Amino acid sequence: MKILITGGQGFIGCHLVDNFLSKGHEVTVFDRHYEEKKWEEYGWKNKVTFQLGDLKDRDSVFDAVYHNDIVVNLGGLLGTQEMINNPIPAIEVNILGALNVFDAIRMHKKRGFQIAVGNHWMNNPYSITKTTAERFALMYNKEHGTDIRVCRGMNVYGERQKHRPIRKIFPNVVIPALLNKDITIYGSGNQVMDLIYVKDFVEILSRIILIDNIPNT
């Protein structure tokens, strides 16, 4: 299968690329920038196709979708507290960009996948916009007969996860501990949080994406 992954150079995306390659699929990464160091580190050169584009650019999205069998939309603007004072860019990328992907999937009759957030109840621009995109995906399935699968994931951790600029719970606890520095505790410190290892998570995603005749849920 020819599989397009938007945001394929990101933390989850890069592991999903590796997963699909291991199963013999042809993978194209759609992104705004080519990160050469990552491609060298991950061994992608001559194995993965790169297509320059922006989710906000409808024409580039439609062109990329047309040339593939499956479209995995992992692209998006990250951040929680970082975007509270200016949520407009998150709306433009995470909602309007996703709608460009969904419209292309609908027009070209492709199978799609939309990543969703586990903390959909939180009132920050990232959670709000990603949850809105999730609901639009389900609406497209109901109203237009598309096949856009949705999966929520929360607190994924593992290799290649960045410590900054976007703060993530696992590296923000583990890295200070490794450096023998103080660990910042938020709230009471008695909270319980579920975590999932990134390679386990992308294996789940790949099975959801590749299986035929899955119900539109």
TrEMBL record:
It holds the Pfam family Epimerase. Belongs to the NAD(P)-dependent epimerase/dehydratase family. PANTHER family: DTDP-D-GLUCOSE 4,6-DEHYDRATASE-RELATED. Residues 3-110, 123-209 form the NAD-dependent epimerase/dehydratase domain. This is NAD-dependent epimerase/dehydratase domain-containing protein. The lineage of its organism: unclassified sequences, metagenomes, ecological metagenomes.
